[in-house]
Amino acid sequence: MKNLLVAVAAASLIAGAVTPASAQSTSPTLARIKTAKTINVAFSGDSPPFSFVGSNNQPAGYSIDLCKRVIAQIERTLGAGTLKVNWLVGGVADRLNMVHSGRADLECANTTQTLQRLNDVDFSNLIFVDGGGLLVRNESPINRVTDLAGKKIAVIRNTTTEERLNYVLKRAAVNATIIPIANANEGIAMLESGSADAYAGDKIKLVGLAAQAKDPGKLVLLAEDISFEPYALAIPRNDSAYRLEVNRALTQIYMGGDIDKIFAEWLGKLGRPSPLLAAMYLLNSIPD
């Protein structure tokens, strides 16, 4: 994958970029970070393998590793030494509100970029693409969306999955009960106890949650997709110079080979990146 990205980048047209010095002078976010010598980062505590609280009580995951490299790029741009990082845990609505209100300078999780969310925050280039799916117990008769009639489905409230699930059920004329929940752990607990027949979420996240369940062998992920989920890092609106530095860091990760190591660390058990994901890395790299 790395060789492909490098080859295409070499053939790309050269585009101008804002210099670090001018970025500092035109970005209110960078100026605030430099003055405080601190960057506030919102993350999810229960979204493995993307973002979660690790065994050492510190943030861990695919998105966290990307954000640590973004923070390193911001440190280089500011030239002010090592920044203090305040990690702020929260659900998706909380994280986006933190960025919108100025409490967080960066959001690192498995957050889907949508037109509606762009009303309140901006987003980096894409960091991953996934699809929404359904996790069920392996003895369940549920094999597809049409089998959900009369069933109870847990889904985290105010997420793109909840919105899409409602649409898919309505389109298929399936009468099911949707149970809005607060977090992923609640969904897995309901599924394991039988108080929910299915748990809807992003597929890669569901795989990670199933692996950490009490008995992973009792859970199965359905093959059918219910949504398309393009992940990106949420950042403050109307700060193009700051967004440039975030995207500069992501490009360095994609083109320099770090993405291979990060993917292998957190997603390697699933195999190599799909053709769609490999293309995403390529198309979201910006030539200097």
Describe the structure in your own words:
The chain is built from eleven helices and twelve strands. It is α/β, with parallel strands linked by helices and 288 residues long. Strands 7, 8, 9, 10, 11 and 12 form a six-stranded mixed beta sheet that branches. A three-stranded parallel beta sheet has the order 5-1-6, sandwiched between helices. The protein has helices spanning 2-10, 20-26, 28-36, 62-78, 92-101, 160-171, 184-193, 203-211, 240-256, 258-267, 275-283; strands spanning 38-43, 46-47, 51-53, 59-60, 84-89, 106-108, 122-137, 152-156, 177-181, 198-202, 219-221, 227-235. The longest helix is centred in the N-terminal third of the chain and has 17 residues, at 62-78. The model is unreliable at 4-18 (pLDDT under 50).
Give a concise summary.
This protein is α/β, with parallel strands linked by helices and about 290 residues long. The chain is built from eleven helices and twelve strands.
**Strand content range:** 15-25%
Radius of gyration: 20 Å
Class from secondary-structure proportions: alpha/beta
Number of strands: 12
Q: Can you tell me the residue ranges where pLDDT is under 50 for at least 5 consecutive residues?
A: 4-18
Question: How many strands, what sense, and barrel or not for the largest sheet?
Answer: 6 strands, mixed
Indicate the percent of residues in helices: 40-55%
